[in-house]
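It would be a great kindness if you could assist me with a short task in structural biology. A protein sequence and the structure tokens that stand for its backbone fold form the material at issue. I should value your view on which stretches of the chain appear to form regular backbone elements. The record follows directly beneath this note.
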Amino acid sequence: MSWLCLAVAGYAAMAVQTQEFELHWMHSVERVQWHEHYRVEPPKLVLTENRVQGSGAGMEPDADAVLKQGWWVSQRHMAVPELTLPDSGFTNALQLCSGGQCAPLASWLPRDGTDRNTPYQLWASSDSHCDDAG
């Protein structure tokens, strides 16, 4: 079983049972959409694809990117132990998509008194207590 663990301000607050998820956000300068698809493979998260709806300001398409219906799509296989995600007040809220549901990270895990500039942490775990990583 695989669990996606979410924390804010360093406290593990919840786990989502899933094999994969996506993150969606708007680039703060170019104001275009960016999507990343991950597999949950404890103890790591594996980026498998990224899609960008434009280019410029540090978001040039990868060399292998293919333009599909207005999105630059790149296949990736990059493993990371965790993600630290800012949720900038200059853009729309960062979206987490899992199990057919997309919602702002703050809907999955309310901040409970921390300000919007406090980053979220995401990591993979083999248990719902999220004790083996993070």
In short: The chain has a mean pLDDT of 85. The helical segments are 105-108. The first strand starts at residue 3 and ends at 8.
